[in-house]
Each structure stands twice: as structure tokens, then as C-alpha cells.
């Protein structure tokens, strides 16, 4: 009996958007209008690439970026929740599927000593170039119309489950924890025994409600959370069953 926990990262594990948090490193803690206005919907990763070039051009170094990123606050109750999951790893496999990047997530999890809680992290690959600039790439290519160009979380989840099945691992239940519009696609892939946990007041909750109003509700159970303590309470019930 094993459960799979799938976490989004921004506004779910951490209470901010890690990509916009890095702007604290920029001169005057802001980006020039031209750069800010260069974002095109669905092309966030390319936009972040330009932000990183701007930071590099302004002499922002890796250690300063790391110091800034490790001050990002965790969501209320999240430290307790991840501690609980870490203590019960024999019952929970745990992955992150995020539109952030490998460098930011790695820094934040390691600084708080949570990297061992997660079995895998699926996010946009990032690295520092020989000139000290942070670079980021799209996670993968996909054909999903609903998702941003760089990442379809449903595809990631499906491929992970297929790989686990090949290893002989199947899950009693999948619990998907997220907040954003790009979490809807994987939630719609969940089955009736699974649970989606959208964050209260965020886009994912609104989109799931809208589907129910349109009489095409998601197949899985839906439990809304405000604090990660709500998630922990649910997981404690699961393992009692």
C-alpha cells in the first residue's frame, strides 16, 4: 500500500513565485518595463531566460541569487507537512512537477533539508554558464493544447506512472497538491480513487469549480486546502484506513 504525492512548487510548497522572487536581486529590485512587457502567454521559460540575462548583465552572481532564493517563505504548515511525509517515506512516494527550475528548487529544498523527502523533481533544467549567467531550458516538448509550451504536467505524471509500473510499483491513491491553471491538466487525468487538493482561492480551485458548474466535473475527489496542515490531516486519515 503506497500513496503518490504530487506537489506543485510555487504558491504550493513555497508561498511565492520563485521566478518573480529572484527579481529582488535586480537593480532597485525591479525589471525594466521593456523586459517585463516582453512576456508572451505560454512562453514563460523564454521570458525567464531574458530575466537571467538581465541579472547577469548587471553583475548578479550565483551566491547572491542563492542567498536571495533561500529566504523565500514556505507556505503555512508546509514545514510540518514535509517533516511528516519524510518520517513516513515507506508509505509515500513524493514528486514535484513544477514550472520553476532545477537550480531554484534544489537550493530551496537543500537549504531547508527537505531534498530527501522527494523522490524526483520534474522541472525546467537550469545551470550556470561558464560566464556565470543562469540559463534555463524548456522541460520537454509536448502536443497538449491546454498547457504552456515548455511543460505539460499530465504528460510528466503519466510517464512517471508508466515507469513506476514497469518497476512493479502501483499506487493505492494519487494525491495531487497544487494551485495554478497548469495543474488542471494533470488533475483531469486522475481517476475516481485519487484526490486533487487545490489551494483555496487560487486558479486551480476556480477552474475545478467551473468544470463542476459546466456539468463536466473532474473524476477524482476534490479537497480544498488553506494551510498544509489541512493536507497533513488528510494524509493521516489515509494511512489510518
Kindly describe this structure.
The protein is α/β, with parallel strands linked by helices and 241 residues long. It has a domain at 3-15 and 74-125 and 148-239: Rossmann fold. 39% of the residues lie in helices and 16% in strands. It has 10 helices and 8 strands. The chain has helices at residues 18-21, 33-36, 44-57, 62-69, 78-87, 102-111, 153-166, 184-189, 203-213, 228-240; strands spanning 3-7, 92-101, 120-124, 126-128, 134-136, 173-178, 195-198, 221-222. The strands form 2 sheets. It has a 6-stranded parallel β-sheet. Helix 5 runs parallel beside helix 10. It is globular and about 55 Å long. Pfam families: Put_Phosphatase.
Q: Rg, please?
A: 18 Å
Unreliable residue stretches:
none
The CATH superfamily title of the domain at 3-15 and 74-125 and 148-239: HAD superfamily/HAD-like
**Main sheet, how many strands, which sense, barrel?**
6 strands, parallel
Characterize the overall form.
globular
Q: Per CATH, what is the topology of the domain at 3-15 and 74-125 and 148-239?
A: Rossmann fold
In spatial order, strands of the major sheet run 3-2-1-6-7-8
- Measured by DSSP, the beta-strand proportion falls in 15-25%
Structural class: alpha/beta
- In which range does the helix fraction lie? 25-40%
- How many β-strands, per DSSP? 8
Terminal CA distance reads: 11 Å
CATH architecture of the domain at 3-15 and 74-125 and 148-239: 3-Layer(aba) Sandwich
Mean pLDDT across all amino acids: 95
CATH class of the domain at 3-15 and 74-125 and 148-239: Alpha Beta
Output the number of helix runs.
Answer: 10
What string, H for helix and E for strand, traces the elements in order?
EHHHHHEHEEEHEHEHEH
Amino acid at each position: 500500500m503506497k500513496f503518490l504525492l504530487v506537489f506543485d512548487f510555487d504558491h504550493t510548497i513555497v508561498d511565492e513565485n520563485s521566478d518573480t522572487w529572484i527579481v529582488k536581486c535586480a537593480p532597485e529590485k525591479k525589471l525594466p518595463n521593456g523586459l517585463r512587457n516582453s512576456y508572451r502567454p505560454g512562453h514563460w521559460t523564454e521570458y525567464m531566460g531574458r530575466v537571467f540575462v538581465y541579472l547577469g548583465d548587471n553583475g548578479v552572481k550565483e551566491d547572491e541569487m542563492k542567498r536571495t532564493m533561500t529566504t523565500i517563505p514556505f507556505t503555512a504548515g508546509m514545514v510540518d507537512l514535509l517533516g511528516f511525509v519524510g518520517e513516513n517515506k515507506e508509505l509515500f512516494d513524493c514528486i514535484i512537477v513544477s514550472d520553476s527550475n532545477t537550480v531554484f528548487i534544489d537550493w530551496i529544498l537543500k537549504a531547508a533539508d527537505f531534498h530527501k523527502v522527494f523522490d524526483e523533481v520534474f522541472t525546467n533544467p537550469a545551470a550556470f554558464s561558464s560566464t556565470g549567467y543562469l540559463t534555463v531550458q524548456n522541460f520537454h516538448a509536448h502536443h497538449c493544447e491546454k498547457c504552456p509550451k515548455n511543460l505539460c504536467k499530465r504528460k510528466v505524471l503519466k510517464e512517471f506512472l508508466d515507469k513506476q509500473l514497469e518497476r512493479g510499483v502501483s499506487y493505492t491513491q494519487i494525491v495531487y497538491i497544487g494551485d495554478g491553471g497548469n495543474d488542471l491538466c494533470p488533475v483531469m487525468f486522475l481517476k475516481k480513487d485519487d484526490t486533487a487538493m487545490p489551494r483555496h482561492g487560487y486558479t486551480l480551485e476556480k477552474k475545478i469549480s467551473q468544470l463542476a458548474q459546466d456539468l463536466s466535473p473532474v473524476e477524482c475527489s476534490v479537497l480544498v486546502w488553506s494551510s498544509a496542515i489541512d493536507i497533513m490531516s488528510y494524509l493521516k486519515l489515509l494511512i489510518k484506513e
